[in-house]
Design goal:
4 helices; 5-stranded antiparallel sheet; RNA 2',3'-cyclic 3'-phosphodiesterase activity; alpha+beta; ligase; 177 residues; Cyclic Phosphodiesterase, Chain: A; EC 3.1.4.58; globular
């Protein structure tokens, strides 16, 4: 089985900006440089033939390069408990168009549609019950912004889960244009 998702890797300068935020929360599991990405679509576990079909079909996704930027921070929770901190993204229309095109490709392959609301973000920390307070972090970084950066490709990524966290490996890169 192959655990796949489609993502955009921000450029080095943006990843450095995010890495500089990662401190002052006890027991937060901060993401490493190679884990920073913006998920366009989580696919999940699929057999090799479907993984190959997905890799081929994603090549049909045609869009022009566009710009996005960091925009604020937020958190996710489940069952009233915080699970993650994230950096938000500005310039959502182009991202939504790209995601809609991908959804069409996935529907044609017979994959279940993703019914969750699309909230473009880059996860910067995983949290658990022993995580310290996040109020100061949120207040200090609420106005997070970046210079716009060009998105000119996306990647199909395979995720390998282990005791030390997830490891990601790009399976294929899809340039725009």
């Amino acid at each position: 089985m192959h655990r796949l998702f489609v993502a955009i890797r921000p450029p080095h300068a943006i990843r450095e900006q995010l890495l500089d935020l990662m401190h002052d929360i006890a027991a937060a599991r901060w993401q490493s440089d190679d884990q920073l990405h913006l998920t366009l679509r989580f696919i999940g576990s699929v057999e090799r033939p479907m993984a190959e079909d997905i890799a081929t079909a994603l090549g049909q996704t045609r869009v022009q390069p566009f710009e996005i930027a960091l925009n604020g921070v937020g958190s996710f929770e489940k069952g009233g408990k915080l699970t993650a901190l994230w950096a938000g993204i500005r310039a959502l229309d182009d991202l939504k168009r790209l995601r809609d095109k991908m959804e069409s490709v996935f529907r044609a392959l017979g994959l279940e549609p993703d019914h969750r609301a699309f909230l473009p973000h880059i996860t910067i920390a995983r949290l658990n019950g022993s995580t310290g307070p996040i109020g100061n972090f949120m207040q200090d970084n609420l106005g997070l912004t970046s210079e716009p950066f060009v998105v000119d490709h996306f990647d199909l990524i395979e995720s390998f889960l282990g005791p030390a966290g997830a490891r990601y490996e790009s399976v294929a890169r899809y340039p725009f244009g």
